[in-house]
Amino acid sequence: MTLYRPNRLSSRAMAYVLAGGRGSRLKELTDRRAKPAVYFGGKSRIIDFALSNALNSGIRKMAVATQYKAHSLIRHLNRGWSFFRSERNEFLDILPASQQMDEENWYRGTADAVTQNIAIIDSYQVDYLLVLAGDHIYKMDYELMLQQHVDSGADVTVGCLTVPRDQASAFGVMDVDAEGRIVSFLEKPKDPPGMPDDPNSTLASMGIYVFDWKFLRELLLKDAANPNSSHDFGHDLIPDLVKNAKAVAHRFTESCVRSAPDAPAYWRDVGTIDAFWQANIDLTDFSPELDLYDRDWPIWTYGEITPPAKFIHDDEDRRGHAVSSMVSGGCIISGSEVRNSLLFTGVKANSYASLKSVVAMPYVGIGRHARLTNVVIDRGARIPEGLVVGEDADEDARWFRRTENGVTLITQDMLDRRDAGA
């Protein structure tokens, strides 16, 4: 008897999100949470983008592998992603490193994070495994990548960004032939190869892979038995498959979800303070490249119940207002000025304060007469009255984390040290 198989490949696939990394380049923003759990865009967390892409693509079987300081991430997933129903054959499993295969507590690499959960993946009887990084901002229809994987007969399909050749040295680069087959994998090469149809551009790995599960399962068991392997997709498995199997590149431009037909393909690694600040501030533009208002491809997240934002006081020198900014629910702009800024839930800015190009995470309090420019403020920080940041580089660097590009990160611990040293 022939078994029925749904036509849509996403219904036969599982999204496996690797979300265990700290993201050390975000400095103090990841002291208490993993990078995928960092807030982004006014309401979301970074991991919501990979999960939302999977859900919007039709994938209803997901797993998230966690490791570094996972409590904030697990709490978010439990609150915001608990709508799956097992009776409809859908789920989201949270998979902390838990000694599944031996007595080692931690995942030893990205591939090992899958290997340790082989039995769990087996139990869901999927045909394809889509391996995703949980720490990038983008919109992508994974069904199109799955379809290319099947049509090409690939052993692995690698999601790739098209980047200018002179900027590609920071990436793992794919050298492809005219049919899109990867002929070599180069890790951060000094002279990246061009593409067959565009010698001035290069294909860089997005850290997204599609495998037939049966094929990957055997590959992982072989890798686990190799004492010389670091058990990592990018360092071990993918380079080996490029040499000894059929690895095919999937161009992000072919499956990205755009805000308009002529819009650029939007993808961001917000792995530094500067990149994180810039990507959030970009959302305040008149027509940002990332469309968070698209109801056809929404970014799902935990929807906290809050009252509407409120703007109070209307005196000449004490007027609560926001210009070219995004202000979330529960915020109170009380006689203060907000420009080109993004305020997360529950931010309160008191009278005579001035915020310019500020990213304020949830429940930040800003005291009277504070003046803040080009700043990121961590969750719950209380900015004291009269604090000035963004006008004196040396003074900013004395107490806070200031980048070479002039963005200042403020956390409550930094403010406490400042108060103690004053």
TrEMBL record:
EC primary class: transferase
Site annotation Could play a key role in the communication between the regulatory and the substrate sites: residues: Q67, W106
BP terms from Gene Ontology: glycogen biosynthetic process
Domain Nucleotidyl transferase: 16-284
Keyword ATP-binding carried by entry: yes
Keyword terms of this UniProt record: ATP-binding, Carbohydrate metabolism, Glycogen biosynthesis, Glycogen metabolism, Nucleotide-binding, Nucleotidyltransferase, Transferase
Gene Ontology MF terms in the entry: ATP binding; glucose-1-phosphate adenylyltransferase activity
Segments forming a coiled coil: none
Transmembrane segments: none
Associated pathway: Glycan biosynthesis; glycogen biosynthesis
Binding site for alpha-D-glucose 1-phosphate: Y107, G172, E187, K188, S205
Entry superkingdom: Bacteria
EC number: 2.7.7.27
Pfam families assigned: Hexapep_GlmU (PF24894), NTP_transferase (PF00483)
Record domain Glucose-1-phosphate adenylyltransferase/Bifunctional protein GlmU-like C-terminal hexapeptide: where: 307-410
Catalytic activity reported: alpha-D-glucose 1-phosphate + ATP + H(+) = ADP-alpha-D-glucose + diphosphate
Gene3D superfamilies: Hexapeptide repeat proteins, Spore Coat Polysaccharide Biosynthesis Protein SpsA, Chain A
InterPro entries documented for this protein: ADP-Glc_PPase, ADP_Glu_pyroP_CS, GlgC_bac, GlmU/GlgC-like_hexapep, NTP_transferase_dom, Nucleotide-diphossugar_trans, Trimer_LpxA-like_sf
Function of the molecule: Involved in the biosynthesis of ADP-glucose, a building block required for the elongation reactions to produce glycogen. Catalyzes the reaction between ATP and alpha-D-glucose 1-phosphate (G1P) to produce pyrophosphate and ADP-Glc.
PANTHER family per UniProt: GLUCOSE-1-PHOSPHATE ADENYLYLTRANSFERASE, GLUCOSE-1-PHOSPHATE ADENYLYLTRANSFERASE-RELATED
Family of the protein in this entry: Belongs to the bacterial/plant glucose-1-phosphate adenylyltransferase family.
Subunit relationships: Homotetramer.
Name this polypeptide is given: Glucose-1-phosphate adenylyltransferase
Organism (species): Paracoccus isoporae
